[in-house]
Amino acid sequence: MTESRTTLYIVYTALGILLFITLFPIALMVLNSVKPSTQIVENPLAWPEVFRWDNFTRAWDDARFGRTLWNSVVLTTLTIVLVCTTGSLSAYVLARRKIKTWKVVTFYLLATTTAPIQLFLFPLYFGFARLGLINNPLAVACIYTAVYSPFAIMLLRTYFLAVPKELEEAALVDGATHWQVFRRVFLPIVSPGILTVALIIGLYSWNEFLVATTFLQGRDRLTAVVSFFQLSGQYTSDWGEIMAAALIIVLPVVVLFVALQRRFIEGMAGGSVKG
Questions:
Q1: Confidence label for 273 from pLDDT (cuts 50, 70 and 90)
Q2: In terms of Cα–Cα distance, which of 94, 99, 76, 216 is closest to 148?
Q3: Could you read off the pLDDT of 103-146 as tens digits, one per residue?
Q4: Which of 22, 35, 83, 264 is deepest in the core (most CB within 10 A)?
């Protein structure tokens, strides 16, 4: 009994430390978002002497968040739709059909998952420039899809493998086509996995900087993360405004994750099934 209680205390202590490490930067960002820049430089941990709520209005106007947040929403939505569509179809085939070259496919998916995007950045840019696809959100969404799809396929495959074969066989016996089996039988069952993939890919796309700043150069095409980066001056920076802008960018993601956290955790647990 004593050993069990000691173990419980150790677990709770470790979780408390991890929680503090996770929440401390967010709390510091919230605290500094309403402080003057001079006070942040003097002591970022101090309580605000004067609450500067205008940091948020200046950040919204200077970063043009009314436009750039919409650009990020469009780009993230396109990426989620493309990744979930292509990933679920590919995962279904790889899970329910006998693939003789499955080891080769696995190696390819793992290799493309670990390969850095910097290796392909210059060839992609020159190719897209020749095709006139610079400043095209759909083209950037296609790049994201190519980068994130291997992860989505590997994760979704485990969900399709967990579906009993009897369901598929019964549907085929009843005269359903493979497309109908996929759409009406499998998709409702693996929907938690698709939601998990959508949340993860959405977070990656929302925060992505390198590809967005390379291929979306027009002022009206900038994403929120790129416009946030431009708030920092070469010699001086208004840290209160920067913290307020960071909070504006982070807040939608936090709200969405909190609202869907139960489904996300269920989806991650379901994806732990081994194929």
A1: very low
A2: 76
A3: 788 888 888 878 788 888 888 999 999 999 999 999 999 999 99
A4: 83
> CA angle, 128 as apex, 124 and 134 as ends, to 5°?
120
Instruction: Record the tokens describing residue 62, joined without a space.
Output: 């200077």
pTM (predicted TM-score): 0.85
Q: What separation, in Å, do the N-terminal and C-terminal C-alpha atoms of the chain show? A: 38
Element (H, E) at 71: helix 65-96
Nearest to 137 by CA among 70, 87, 62, 202: 70
Burial of 263 (0-12, 13-18, 19+ CB in 10 A): middle
Q: How many CA atoms lie within 13 A of 134 on its CB side?
A: 14
Token representation of residue 251: 């807040």
Pull the structure tokens for residue 111.
């290799």
Integer CA distances (angstroms), 208 to 50, 89, 128, 154, in order: 34, 25, 19, 21
